Amino acid sequence: MMKEEEGQRFSTRAIRGQTERTQYREHATPLFLTSSFTFDTAEQMANTFAGEEEGIIYSRYSNPTVDELIAKVCVMEGCAAGFATATGMAAVFSSLAALLRAGDHIIATRAVFGSTHQILTEILPRWGITTTYVDPENTSQWDAAIKPTTKLMMLETPSNPGLKLVDLKAAGEFCTHHGLIYVVDNCFATPYLQRPAEYGADLVIHSATKWMDGQGRVLGGLIVGKEKYLEPITFFCRHTGPAMSPFNAWVLTKSLETLKVRMDAHCANALELASWLSEQDWINKVHYPGLKSHPQYELAQRQMKAGGGIVTFELKGGVLAAGELIDGVKICSRSSNLGDTRTILTHPATTTHSKLTETERLAVGISPGLIRMSVGLEDTQDLKNDLTQAVLPHG
Ligand SMILES: *Cc1c(COP(=O)(O)O)cnc(C)c1O
Predict the structure, then answer these.
(1) What is the mean predicted confidence (pLDDT) over 287-309?
(2) Which CATH number fits domain 10-258: 3.40.980.10, 3.40.640.10, 1.10.580.10, 3.90.1150.10?
(3) What is the CATH number of domain 259-394?
(4) I need a surface site. Which of 126, 217, 231, 313 has the fewest CB within 10 A?
């Protein structure tokens, strides 16, 4: 279970973790939609560029609205420093590209996000950076993947879409033992449900596009972690330009104020639907970390506050039944996104994970009849009725 920091608790920090106000004493976060900033004198400008005077120069480097978002997320994740990027993938790529060089080796848990998989297997090898995948559940086998050139471990928990967990404590000990940079993509859990820095993670990455906004409005990425690593990452990002737009940062600072209430409701709805799905005769198997039937239920109880908003299930009728269900729903959305107030159904085998081979898909638990449901905030009875009428159109 997560420790609450001395003093303010999570939701207070998410709402009050703001920086100073301007001379207008505005209540909500102001939006500084400006590309650049001005100086009073040539000397002040020179000193700011030299780093001798505090000041904001240009929004590719930093921006007050973006800085407020970063400061909030640092407090929520328990991290010292951060950088905000335009998308989650920019956060993943910039972190790896800033910290690694030709010849370095990465260990990653199998079943990382699709585009992360493309970066690890197609893009980074062009610069001589290679990756070995390991089984997320079998920590005892990880030692075998270590090479003299191994520099970093990258993992996601719970994984997409298999919802397998990685033991954050065991991974932290493994990284410490081998001197690896420990990186966690915390997108599926959010800092409300799980805080990897408490287990020694050096960097925590987010696609803020998902639960952090939670309302399907903006793209965004976040990298928070130890000062030592954020320094080269900030240098890399300032000069290569993946910065988050101030507008998106402004939307996201507001989103975070409701993270706790949204996640509590998403998790409650997801648990209720997962239990209900487990009892339906058209279902083969339900995967949800908050269900006692999940093989890592104990671990979920230890490192997560609740099971999260994603439920996956396998239909008895395989790929055909999956297609019929997705075509038949009248409330749920057909979309590849997740982490929204609206419930979304996705068929990973033919969409998000279609670039994998059948064997690769089965290795990460994506059977042909698997559906990923990102549980929204609609009334659960309406969602049950919607799914039922879609599988039993004549009943
Ligand atoms: C969506 C997602 C990403 C990528 O984020 P974008 O904002 O779409 O670039 C990375 N990791 C995970 C786990 C995701 O779900």
Answers:
(1) 97
(2) 3.40.640.10
(3) 3.90.1150.10
(4) 126
